[in-house]
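Let us practice reading a record.
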Amino acid sequence: MTIEAEVQKIMDDALPAIVKNMRKIATDANASATNRLEAIGVLLRVVRGPNNCTADIAAGRDAQVALSDAGPFLEQIVKSHKSKLIRARAIKLASHISKLG
C-alpha cells in the first residue's frame, strides 16, 4: 500500500469523528461565534470534498445535515453580531451553503 493510500485510509476512518465533533461545536450555543464559524467551515469542506469512497459520501451527508442545523446560527450572526468581520464570514459561509442545493 502506498503512503498516499495509507493517508487516505486514515482520513476516511477519521472523517465521521471529525464531522461529529464539528457538528457539536457548530451547534453549541456556548461556543464562541469564531469557533462555531470555523466548525461550519470544516463541515463545508467535508461536504465539498472528493466523494471517491463510501466513508466520504456518508461523512458528507452527515456534514450537510449539520450545516442545515447550524443555519439559524448563521442567520443570527448576520443580523446581530457586532463584529463586521464575523458578520462577513457568516454571510460568506451562508452563501456557500446555499449553493450546495
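A brief commentary: Residues 43 and 85 are 20 Å apart (CA to CA).
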